[in-house]
Design goal:
By secondary structure, the chain is of the alpha+beta class. α1 runs parallel beside α3 (79-108).
Length: 542
């Protein structure tokens, strides 16, 4: 009941256990993929004509949440724990994908695909374009174009360690909605501007140049007055190997003195062009060092920014792997995504408190911006970062030997994206692009059938870029639709949240889904006032 309690503004940074952002990378990869899988499943199942699989969704979420328990998700458990978590995640992937495909096909069923040769259903839970893919068995002529009611998009066959796939840009009509599209063997009339050699890749937005070992020497915008985003004279996308011998807790900690031992892995064993198509161009760089190997495709295509699809065969002891980007950007602070917003942290080491934050956590992105330009690093499964001056680094792998001596050993696959942008982060598409990278486009082949439209309305969307829709689900009592959003940039304003079903009633709710004040609405949507970083839960009668 005291009125004199102390308060604290900002984050409470814990000056230990910084290694837990990175240890057991495979477990963290599964966690991120399952979070987004179940997000998409809830979203689609809330609108599908078949019954909402509440019990199945609850079972799968409880498996994911169980494995976010201390010490599982930090990567500081014994080996047997991760054998168990692998089994749990396999169940979530298998059953979640099956339930999602059922909902996707149910929503696509009433759509018109009667005149299509090879119809597919597509759903991408994002607001910007990225790339979608579909396995390709090589039987018959490969499709060259994807047709929707409004777009004709190029299709490309790519081959990698997983076999052959068809890749294509996600159609705009499928962003936030379910759409049907036709794969055809006819060529598209218009294809993007793409160029590739072992020393350069280009599209309409960026020109990326490499040295003879596949290290980036320049990233320039394709404007009349181009901007350079890499520090002149520096090399970027440089893998760094450092000694990693914590004083006490091997899996838990990394120490600042380890950063002083960083050795740049600049030499490549091979650099070659592996993709030269109408959708994407890519070079592949292979680096072998000690007992390990990095195989990386660097590409330009539908994904916003420069994409790095990376496979690491990791067999090191007491080492840490980072990747570094020296940028042509100056700022005293960098932004790091946290749950439902972001935190600002210093890029200098002026005080002992600044010095202590030599390794920090973030979710899907970190950004360094000045007034005229900035750069973000997006990721699909990484959490450890550091920014010092103009250099951003992403932590990729560790090799602690206790309590699990096999921690991180073996093959890892992950993707990160470097996203240059104009102005600062809050006026860019960093948040939307990070969601697009992580929200895998859902694609399924379907049978032809008659219908009245080629796409559903957008299921739930916001007309305000500041207000991000994070969750769409059926209420726990099964009577209403729950929509949870948050303000992402530190702004205030009003958003109109649209719904693909007619709205009969709208209330602001708490996190337990209990209805509070009624909100103004019409059958298409509801108007929501928001404050900086506010989490808003809506309860809708549809």
């Amino acid at each position: 009941e005291s009125r004199d309690l102390r308060t604290w503004a900002g984050e409470l940074y814990f000056e230990y256990h910084r290694g837990t952002y990175t240890s057991q990378a495979r477990n963290k990869w599964h966690n991120r993929k399952c979070e987004f899988l179940l997000r998409d499943l809830e979203w689609l199942a809330s609108f599908a004509p078949n019954a909402y699989p509440k019990a199945e969704i609850e079972r799968l979420w409880k498996l994911v949440l169980l494995n976010q328990f201390h010490d599982i998700i930090p990567g500081s458990s014994v080996r047997e724990v991760y054998e168990d978590s692998e089994r749990d995640y396999a169940i979530v992937h298998e059953r979640g994908e099956a339930a999602l495909e059922t909902a996707l096909r149910a929503l696509a069923g009433p759509l018109d695909s009667s005149d299509m040769e090879r119809p597919i259903a597509i759903f991408h839970n994002a607001t910007v374009t990225t790339e979608a893919s579909l396995p390709w068995n090589g039987e018959g002529p490969a499709p060259e174009s994807l047709h929707t009611e409004d777009e004709v998009l190029p299709v490309q066959v790519v081959k990698d360690e997983d076999g052959a796939r068809l890749i294509f840009p996600t159609p705009m009509v499928a962003q936030g909605a379910v759409a049907v599209a036709d794969l055809r063997t006819t060529s598209p009339l218009v294809v993007p501007r793409l160029k590739v050699s072992t020393r350069r890749i280009e599209n309409a937005h960026w020109s990326v140049r490499f040295d003879g070992n596949g290290n980036i020497t320049s990233i320039r915008s394709q404007d009349e007055e181009p901007l350079e985003f890499i520090r002149p004279g520096a090399l970027a996308n440089v893998f760094q190997l450092m000694d990693d011998h914590p004083l006490f807790w091997s899996a838990w900690d990394v120490e600042q003195y380890s950063f002083e031992t960083a050795r740049d892995l600049l030499k490549a064993d091979s650099v070659e062009v592996v993709e030269r198509g109408p959708v994407r161009v890519a070079i592949e760089v292979i680096r072998r060092f000690r007992k390990s190997e990095i195989r990386q495709r660097i590409s330009l295509g539908p994904t916003p920014g420069i994409r790095f699809d990376t496979i690491v065969d990791w067999h090191e002891d007491n080492k840490m792997l980072k990747v570094a980007f020296p940028l042509n950007v100056h700022s005293d602070t960098a932004k790091f995504e946290i749950q439902f917003g972001h935190a600002n942290r210093p890029t200098h080491r002026n005080t002992s408190w600044d010095e202590a934050r030599f390794e920090v956590c973030a979710q899907k992105w970190a950004d360094l911006s000045e007034a005229g330009q900035g750069v973000a690093i997006l990721n699909d499964s990484k959490y450890g970062h550091d920014v010092l001056g103009d250099t951003m680094r992403l932590s990729l792998l560790r090799a602690p030997k206790a309590p699990d001596p096999t921690c991180d050993m073996g093959r890892h696959r992950f993707t990160y994206v470097l996203l240059p942008h104009y102005d600062d982060m809050v006026h860019s598409d960093v948040v939307a692009a990070a969601y697009a990278l992580n929200a895998t486009p859902r694609v399924a082949a379907i049978a032809t059938g008659a219908g009245v439209a080629s796409a559903t309305p957008r299921l739930v969307s916001s007309d305000d870029r500041n207000f991000v829709i994070e969750t769409v689900k059926r209420s726990e009592d099964g009577t209403h639709l729950i929509v949870r959003g948050y303000e992402a940039h530190g702004a205030r304003g009003t958003a109109f949240v649209q719904c693909g079903k007619p709205i009969q009633g709208a209330w602001k709710a708490n996190l337990e889904e209990r209805a509070g004040d009624a909100l103004p609405f019409d059958e298409n949507g509801v108007r929501v006032d928001y404050r900086p970083f506010e989490i808003v839960t809506l309860r809708l009668e549809v």
